[in-house]
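Help needed: design a sequence for this.
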């Protein structure tokens, strides 16, 4: 599928494996997932020119260590917390070119790989690292913003693992950023 430089609707293919009752591996799903703008919930429309970003929720586990026999649930086109407290999740973010992002802290350890584009990772200390295609950043609960420094949509693959809060030298626990019902909905009970 061809796309324009500012198209945030480029789909991905997600394949998930599982085990049958006898322990034999099989393909549980093979789906095409299209990015959506969380602000358009519950319709979950493809991001448009006014969207701040697009997201594809790839997978979400509800425990750690992960129970690979737990029935699969579909996280795509649902509102998922920025960082689950119960287990790891992974997603793709599509970021349009921008002058600034949104500073936020999550109680998580995040592994992010730049798949396409040029992205600035800015800390609340005022430092910035420019990340390019194939660069990896490990974010350890820091307050940060993502800013697309290029002219085309940037695509970032992120794995989010719940973490303990960071505690400062004076004993202050650094809390997650309040993000509202769209970006940080209440986690459902198991």
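Sure. Designed sequence:
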């Amino acid at each position: 599928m061809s796309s324009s430089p500012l198209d945030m609707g480029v789909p991905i293919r997600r394949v998930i494996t599982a085990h049958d009752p006898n322990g034999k591996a099989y393909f549980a799903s093979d789906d095409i997932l299209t990015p959506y703008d969380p602000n358009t919930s519950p319709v979950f429309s493809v991001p448009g020119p006014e969207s701040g970003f697009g997201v594809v929720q790839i997978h979400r586990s509800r425990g750690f260590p992960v129970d690979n026999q737990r029935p699969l649930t579909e996280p795509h086109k649902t509102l998922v917390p920025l960082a689950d407290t119960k287990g790891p999740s992974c997603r793709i973010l599509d970021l349009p070119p921008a002058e600034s992002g949104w500073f936020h802290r999550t109680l998580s350890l995040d592994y992010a790989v730049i798949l396409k584009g040029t992205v600035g990772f800015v800390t609340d200390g005022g430092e910035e690292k420019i990340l390019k295609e194939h660069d990896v950043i490990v974010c350890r609960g820091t307050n940060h913003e993502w800013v697309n420094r290029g002219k085309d949509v940037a695509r970032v693959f992120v794995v989010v693992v719940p973490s303990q809060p960071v505690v400062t030298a004076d004993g202050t626990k650094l809390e997650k950023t309040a993000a509202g019902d769209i970006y940080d909905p209440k986690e459902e009970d198991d």
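Residues 12-183 form a domain with the Jelly Rolls fold (CATH 2.60.120.10).
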